[in-house]
Amino acid sequence: MYTDVLDDPTADQTGAYTMDPIQFLVSDHPDPIFIMEKATGRITRTNQEGSGRMATLLTGQLLNGLIWFCEKETETPYAFYDGQWYQSHKQEITLDGTEQLIVILKRRTDVPDRDSFDSLKQVTATLLHRLRSPLNGAQGYLEMIGDELTSKSARRRYNRIQDGFDRTFDIMDELELLNQVPAGGTSDGSAVLANPEKIVEEIRFQVSQEEGKRIRFISKGNPPGMLCDPVTLRKILAELIRNGLEHTGRGDVLIETVSQDRLRVSNGGEPIPGELARKIFYPFVTRKVNSLGIGLTRAYILASSQRGTLFLDRNSTEAGVSFTFQLPPTGW
After folding, report:
1. Cβ-proximal residues to 86 (8 Å cutoff; 6+ apart), any chain
2. What pLDDT, on a 0 to 100 scale, did the predictor assign at position 9?
């Protein structure tokens, strides 16, 4: 089936059908592609991935009316289109005698897809259910044995075994957090203005006094708040702040409200190595021995539930490490 002018064949003078050569190059591309005339900002061509889910033809429409580009203050440009977030790539070309712009919306490779994450949750829930009962039973018998121990050396060995059980249950409790992330889907539109400053203050009182002093909040332009669920925003901020406190040693964690739809959490810690940075929002990606690496995964999925996203927008020795929570602007 042909879609838009990219796929529409034209007949030459002999009556044979020929395809637009540019269409031939992009029609089978797996990512949405748009070609825009720079002078007018209107779409001249697109491919099946770009127009397949839209109810109307896109040719002739303003590109910036369909795609919201998030390019300022980020190392990697992102775009919001048809309810999804992409990495955007642009290239200028001359086509049909006019200057045009090719825009490719690449699917993000630094985040887990929702179906895979939901499958992981199901597997984790099953394993936790199967493991808890026998472990609870074994720990109960161990405590009964502990009550009868009189030897100091036996007591030391008992304590080490008990510590192992406690650590195992701590790991299982952490895994349980994956199952508390909301199921697939997005916000139902019932979001209200959440107050990031108030939420940060609440989080500050729930950490140690020393850590609380390291948490700083600033606001650019005093935006009224963020249009999202306050409970969900609190969970997102809690994960990002906890990650920052762990990552920066004794340094500060800065929470900055950039605008009504953008919030950044930064720390001055060492840059995240390239391999980890490329999969930073995947579960079990961590450099820490005693961490499962699921905090940023939880934060990302929670952001997705608000039609938003998270991205690592700064990661260098000079700029430190920054994660940004981005919502689509009102009306998108």
Report:
1. 31, 32, 78, 79, 80, 105, 106, 107, 108
2. 44
Q: How far apart are CA 209 and CA 66, in angstroms?
A: 47
Q: What are phi and psi of 26, to 5 degrees?
A: -105, -10
DSSP 182: P
pTM, rounded to two decimals: 0.77
What span, in angstroms and rounded, lies between the C-alpha atoms of 39 and 59? 15
Query: Beta partners for 323?
Result: 265, 312
Among left, alpha and beta (phi > 0; psi -120 to 50; other), residue 71 is alpha
| CA–CA distances in Å: residue 36 to residues 104, 105, 222 | 11, 14, 36
Eight-class DSSP state of 329: P
- Average of per-residue pLDDT across 62-84: 83
pLDDT tens, residue by residue, 168-219: 888 787 777 777 666 544 455 556 889 999 999 999 999 999 999 999 999 8
> What is the rounded CA–CA span in Å between residue 129 and residue 140?
17
Q: Give the whole-number percent of the chain exceeding pLDDT 90.
A: 22
Instruction: Name which residue leads in pLDDT, 279 or 177.
Output: 279
Distance CA(263)–CA(265), nearest Å, equals: 7
**Which pairing describes strands 10-11 and 17-18: parallel, antiparallel, or unpaired?**
antiparallel
pLDDT digits (tens, 9 = 90+) for 233-243: 999 999 999 98
Both tokens of 253, joined, read 């964690």
Q: What are residue 273's phi and psi, to 5 degrees?
A: -55, 150
More confident residue, 170 or 244: 244
136-151 as b/e: b if 16+ CB within 10 A: eeebeeeeeeeeeeee
For the packed helices 114-146 and 152-176, what is the interaxial angle rounded to 10 degrees?
160
Work out the end-to-end distance of the chain between its first and last CA atoms, rounded to an integer number of angstroms.
29
Cα radius of gyration rounded to whole Å, the chain: 26
